Each structure stands twice: as structure tokens, then as C-alpha cells.
Amino acid sequence: MQKLIIEGSRELRGEIRIQGAKNSILPIMAATLLCDEECIIYNCPDILDVKTTIEILQYLGRSTTFEDSVLTVKPGNLKKSDIPEFLMRKMRSSIVFLGALISKTGKAEVTLPGGCELGPRPIDMHLSGFKQLGVRINENHGKIECSVIKRIKGAEIMLPFPSVGTTENIMLAAVSCEEVTTIRNAAREPEIVDLANFLNKMGASIDGAGESTITIKGCKKFNSASHKIIPDRIVAITYLCAAAITGSRLVIKGIPKNFINSVIPLFEETGCLIKFFDEKNLQIYSPERLQSVKTVRTMPYPGFPTDVQAPVMAMLTTAFGTSVFVETIFGSRYKHVDELARLGANIKTEGSVAIVDGVKNLSGANVSATDLRGAAALVIAALAAEGVTIISNIGYLKRGYEKMEDNLRSLGAVIKQSM
Ligand code: EPZ
Known about the structure:
- By secondary structure, this protein is an alpha+beta fold.
- The protein has two domains: 3-19 and 231-418, Enolpyruvate transferase domain (UDP-n-acetylglucosamine1-carboxyvinyl-transferase, Chain, Alpha-beta prism), CATH 3.65.10; 22-228, UDP-n-acetylglucosamine1-carboxyvinyl-transferase, Chain, CATH 3.65.10.10.
- The protein contains 15 helices and 23 strands.
- The structure holds ligand EPZ.
């Protein structure tokens, strides 16, 4: 079991460039299934979830090359329309292959993604959207079998919640139908816009991505396309937290201001100053000790992102005062709290609420990562803690953060891996 060993309470100095977005590359890789020509994706992050998705593409009959952030997906005969359980269990977001397989083959078979570290991960909204597009759904013993009844038909789909995965899956299923499909109350994340841009490059006509109403006019044949993945806003905010808790000045390159607008007021409330040199490059200045933040409520985009709830909570464990978190997106996203407490954090949770009473210092300890963003939270806390922290289960971290250990070492952190 891989571990990270961090010697904390050191300032960071220097600059880093932000990787391509994990939550953009995954649905775009599923979208490459639609095209029978070669697709080239630039700025692809070198992370475990990409490697798992490559395994799924290869299982389905595609061949791929991945070198220096360039992913090439080559045509091959699409032999299957199922995703085996061992791959589904590796990564819940493989559910987004459902829509692409339905579009491409008229059927799809996957196992339920299963509950996980964030709480139940139901897919009722995905399946309801598919039914409205003319797809028959059979569910038995945790297996989902989808088959197009006659043909995919255009539909008016109202989402009960702006679910990211549901929006993506409906786009991918509807995009092979030349009738118009409208998604109302759609998710508005930048990753949705990136997927729509890629599908339009291949020949679709999708309007409104990034807004609450998206219209999709699909196409029968998808052309070869090349595309550069947008920067990862969650990774960028994670590094901002690392700078803030260590009282550091950091330059972060390649992150559009509008991608992190929702968190800038929060960092300013803590006493940090974030200055943009231009549209995509910023410098963060951090005080000796942060001020607490009254309320942090996670919301769908463009609200405060649930994916930075854990990193921001870690950042505020040593702030002056009390910060209150309300997690409104997932049912159980506080598993990192007990591990932060081992480092000396003072956090109480009650349902969706977490109350963080800032402490003067954290102290190094042995901790264990519970999920991807929880792992990032432990790294952030360890960077500030006095003494040595050993973080186990860091495989979670590698699912979404490219070369985090190297990046932090280049900024002056004393960090190394051990088995
Ligand atoms: C995506 O997950 C992201 N993952 C998550 O990032 C992110 O936290 C989430 O969107 C919210 O922004 C990827 O893009 C690969 P949802 P997704 O559907 O699509 C409930 C990370 O750390 N729901 O918007 O699964 C669901 O249980 C990951 O990078 C239903 O009830 O999120 C959750 O409570 C974690 N029924 C809420 O909606 C459904 O059919 C939001 O889920 C679908 C979702």
C-alpha cells in the first residue's frame, strides 16, 4: 500500500501549471467511441482514472496511445457493448459510457456503480433520461441492460437536479439522433461545455452548454476531431489551499478566472489575496494565519464546488475562529474528518453540517486516505502540520492529481513516497 511521507510546516515557493481536467477527459474519452476515425486529445492528465478509461476503451475494441499528455484513440471494430464489473468497480464515472454505447451500438450493459466513499451513487436520473429517448431498461441483480426499442428519438427532458453525469449521459445518448433533444435544469459545469465542444467538432449541433437548457441535434456520422482538454479547476483550488494553509506565495498558471470565481471571495475572507496577472495566470498571497469562514455551502456550478469541500476544510483547520460547512450534493462526504482529527483538527459533524473550530497547530500523525478529495485534504493538512505525517492509501490521490508529489517537491515541500 503506497504511502506519502510529508515533513510539514514549511512555506511553499514557486509556480505550477494546472493539468487537464479529470472530469472533462473522462466523458470525452467515452465520446470518442462514437467516431470511427482517429481522435487526438491534448492536455490529457496522466492520472489513474485516465488509465482505467483507456482499459475500458481497449476492452470495447478501440486502440489507444498516450504520451506527453497526448491521447490518441484509434478506430477498431467495436466488439462489445458491456463494461465488466471489475472495471465498473474501479471507477464510478465509467457509468458515462452508457450513453456513448447506446448511441453507438443501440445497447449497453453495465453493473450498478455501487455506493462509495461519497454515499450512494444512484443512476435513476440517467435511466429516466434514457427511457425518454426511447431506450428499454432492464435492471436485475445490480446489472443494467439498455436497448434501443426502435430508434433513439428526440425528447424534452427535465432533470429533477442538475446532475453532471446525467447531463453528460443524455448528451451522449441523444447525439446520434438527428431529432432535437432538450435538457432542462442541465448541469452547467465547464466540463459539460468541454464535452459539447468536442461533440460539435465531431459533427453534432449542441447549443446552450454551460446554461440550464441544452439543445442537442445529433448526427449519424462523427468525424475525426482533435481537442485540448480544459484545465482542472478542482486541482487549481487544491493548490490554492496548500498555499493558503502554509502562509505561502504561489504562482498558478493556466487556470481561467471564471473557473474559480466561486471560491475567490472565500479565500479573500480567510485573508488571502488572489491577483490575476491576466485571464489565466494568478498569484496567491497568504497571511501568517488564516481567518475562519462563516459558511461554506456546496452547490452545483457556478456555486461552491463539492469537490473542494474537503481541501478547503483542511485549509481551515488551523484558521482563527470557527467555519461551518454544509454539504448539499453528496450524502456522505465527511469521511476525511476523522483522519484530519488524527492530525489535531477540531471538527464536529452532524448530518450534512461540519463545524471546524480552528486550532493553532496541527501535529504530524499516521493517517489514511478515504477517497480522492479526502486524500488531497490530508496532504494539505500534512503540509502545515508540525513534524512528519504518513498518509496511506494514496492510490486515491493518483486517481485525479497528476504528479502532485513532484509538484509539491518543486515548490519546496519535503515529501516522498514509500511502499
Ligand atoms: C460528477 O459526479 C463528478 N465526477 C464528481 O467529481 C462531482 O463531485 C459531481 O459531478 C458533482 O459536481 C465526474 O465528473 C467524473 P452528479 P456525478 O450526478 O456525475 C445524485 C471528483 O471528486 N444523483 O452531479 O456522479 C448523486 O448521488 C468527483 O472528481 C442521483 O440521485 O455527480 C449526488 O448526490 C466526485 N441520481 C448528486 O445527485 C442520479 O441519477 C450529484 O451527482 C444521479 C445523481
